[in-house]
Amino acid sequence: MTPTRPPGSSWVSTLRELGLGLDVVQAVLSRARTVAEVAAAHVAVLDVQIRTLRLRRAVLSTVARHGPTIEETLIMHKLAKLSARERQQIIDDFVDGVFAGADQDGPAAGIARGMRQLPAELPDDPAPEQLSAWVELAELVADEDFRQRARSMVLAGQQAAPDGAASGGEAQPDYRAFTDRISQATAAGIAPGSPEGQALLDSIIPAAAGRPQLLAQLETFTDARVERYWQLLAILNGQPVPPSVIPAFDWLIAALRAGLTHGASAP
After folding, report:
1. Most distant CA pair in the chain: distance in Å?
2. Tens digit of pLDDT for each residue in 91-149?
3. CA angle, corner 79, sides to 77 and 83, nearest 5?
4. Nearest residue to 58 via CA among 123, 4, 141
5. Given CB 3.0 to 4.6 Å as the disulfide criterion, which of 33, 56, 230, 253 pairs with 27?
6. Could you count the other beta carbons within 10 Å of the beta carbon of residue 91?
7. CB–CB of 229/137 below 8 Å?
8. How far is Cα 160 from Cα 154, in angstroms, rounded to an integer?
9. d(CA 62, CA 78)
10. Interacting residues of 59 by C-beta distance below 8 A, sequence separation 6+
């Protein structure tokens, strides 16, 4: 008949090599606990230890690559150890403050829901980019200037698009449709106030299209930090990171300003 467990010495050696303490080994040998019970408990402990080691590895990899100060390293390590609930609370507190009083049935409510979306846990083996994204996000929402800027955007309009642009009640230009054209113009060195730049502006936004209002909207709702917030969420959630459109919007703002200034000074 097959024995229920191997001879004592080899069995004890095996259990010890698997990392079990002498008290646990004694409990198994005395039949106070089964091998399955001990193994399950030990796996749970190892899972915690593995996750801790992976987080440490991610922190050290990020430190090695970016070379932060001692203070920044301490903050990074602290943020990496937060639980999912603690991380979510940081984001919820930020969103609650920014959207306080906003219409719960309006477009702002949908944006607020999107801004809360964090993964339940950092990946078991977080890449340095993901850890850096979480640290950067936590620092961003703790920045009082950013909080006030985001709050002002919510109060300024009923709709604020995730990429930093806004759309009001009137028909708006399809901003994304011309970002490539503006990017090409920028790469070619075409200045917003140059004749070539103003010609491109005319092809995008006709002079009679309410340019002062569009300029005011773009100046209110264009912010690189807001765009970065959405990019960081994408990194953390393992989603494609949308390319930045802020440079194109900045060019468009400068072109609109130049056009309006030229128009105001024309006889």
Report:
1. 109
2. 899 999 998 887 777 667 788 888 888 876 665 556 777 777 888 888 899 899 999 99
3. 115
4. 123
5. 33
6. 18
7. yes
8. 7
9. 14
10. 73, 76, 77, 80, 131
